Structures are given as structure tokens and as C-alpha cells.
Amino acid sequence: GERVILHVDMDCFFASVAALGRPELAGLPVAVSWSSAGGGELSSCNYLARNAGCRAGMRIARAKELCPNLIVMPYEFERYSAVAIDVYRTLHELSPHVMGVSVDEAYVDVTGLAACGRKTPREIAEDVRAKIFAKTGCVASVGSGPNRLIARLATKRAKPDGSHHVPASNASSFLASMPVAELPGVGRGTLEKLRREGIGSMVGAVGPMGTAGNPTCADVAAAPLSVLRRALGPKAGAQLRDASRGIDARAWEARPPRKSVGAQVTWGVRFEEAAEAVAFVEKLCAEVSERMRRLRVKGRTLTLKI
């Protein structure tokens, strides 16, 4: 039978948890931020806030202009952890093959369940969504397909609050017209390198062609491997061609081996004075040091990411 991988992604997770047990927030646009002042940045917005134009990374002052009745809630890490544990328990009840990505995202290999033939992949996905909602009160979207890549891309079609299955037989047609920018890890740098090689501006007979600088997966799949390797390097070029054809040969690692210890803050860190920045970095260093002590590790390389 065909392999079936689910990609389970919690919808607007932080904002969704913020609304749990708070009926006064029902039907209101909700966002989460480290600060309720105008200079703070939003991290997670529910769909009502998104529909009003609010986005992750947006300053609160701008968000309130777009959505005057926006409710901004603080981070509540203990609540996120508690809900995440319930989500992961639900997934482990379904299959022992669970691969965690983050607090609100995981892959589940349900090939065994699908092979029994009692439920279709779509029915399995809807069952998972119903169980997660019953247990946590939070909504999950689920994409499914023959590998992790296709499952993750299917989730984009599943959102909000839905499921979408792409069987192996449909994988290449599902990808063909998709902009290559939608593939995980493809950013502006990669697109610029592809554009310089003329990929995406070629006129050909393979599927709907992308415009210059906006190549589709079909454009990349049809490009000579030598050109892709020249543009991106030997390994990345081959990987991108595989991905554009729906091939994902990565090994399944339920718990990938830890290669580093770190601490990072991604949202809304802004300082007026140099001394504030130094104090902040010192706090982060102390946190990393404490984590290293707890894990009893030493390191050779220190990386500072800004």
C-alpha cells in the first residue's frame, strides 16, 4: 500500500489558546504579543484578526488602525505547553510514529492505519481533527500525502479548519503550477539565483510556466540538473529539483539527535539604547549557559543570530 503521512498544524495556536476558557473573547479578533503598547509586534492572530488585515510581525499600532476592536493578549507559555502535550498524546494514541516539529506542528505516519482499509486518509485526518478539538478546544488543519513534503504543502490547502489529501498519483500535477517559492526553505536568495539562470522565464511545453523571477515547480522540475547545481550548489540544486517533483527522501527521525543548545527570541525585540541591547544579550547568554549546564555539554562554536 501507499505510504500516508499526516501533517498536523494547529490553526493560529497562540491566539487559539488565548481564547480557551475565556468566553468574553468569543467572536472577537484576538492577537498575541509580548507588549500591548503600540510598538509591540503581533506573533499570532486569529482568523477574525487576519481577515481585518492583521499579520504576524505587524506593529500593534498599525494593527489597531486596521482593526480597532483587536484584543491583544500576552504570551502564556504554560498554557501552550499543557495544550501541546494533549495534542501530542492524541497523536500518539493514533500511531507510534509521531515526529514533532514544534509546539503546534507534527507529522504522523498512519500508513498502517490506512493499509487496514477501514478508513481513507481523509477520514483519518478528520478523525484526528475531531479528537484534537474534543480534547483541547483548539482547531487543527491536516494535510496528508505520500511523504512529509507533500503533506506539508497539502496543509496550505486544508487551512483554515480543514483537511486535504494528495495521493502519490496526483503529486506531480498538484505541484506543477505551484510557485517554487511555496516550497519549504525557498526564499528570496534562492529565487534570485534561479532568475539569474533564466529559470521561470523559459517558454516551454511543461505545464503553466511561471513569470520571470516567479518560477513554478514545473519550471524547476524541467530545468537541467547542471543548471540548478550551478545556481544553488550541488546538494541544494539536487534537493530543490527533487522537491519540485514531489520527491522527499529524508529519513524519518522521531527525535532528531540534538546538535546544538540555544535560546532565541523572534518577536518584537527593539531597543532605544545600546546598553539595553547588551543587557538583553547577557540575559540570553545566561539562559544558554544554564541550559548547557543542565544538559552537561561543552561546545566549540558560538553562533550569534541577529
UniProtKB/TrEMBL annotation:
Keyword annotations: DNA synthesis
Biological process according to GO: DNA repair; error-free translesion synthesis; error-prone translesion synthesis
Domain of life: Eukaryota
Gene Ontology MF annotations: damaged DNA binding; deoxycytidyl transferase activity; DNA-directed DNA polymerase activity
Family matches, as InterPro entries: DNA/RNA_pol_sf (IPR043502), DNA_pol_Y-fam_lit_finger_sf (IPR036775), DNA_pol_Y-fam_little_finger (IPR017961), IMS_HHH_1 (IPR053848), Rev_trsase/Diguanyl_cyclase (IPR043128), UmuC (IPR001126)
PROSITE patterns linked to this entry: UMUC (PS50173)
Family annotation (Pfam families): IMS, IMS_C, IMS_HHH_1
Family: Belongs to the DNA polymerase type-Y family.
Official protein name in the record: UmuC domain-containing protein
Naturally occurring in which organism (per UniProt): Micromonas commoda (strain RCC299 / NOUM17 / CCMP2709) (Picoplanktonic green alga)
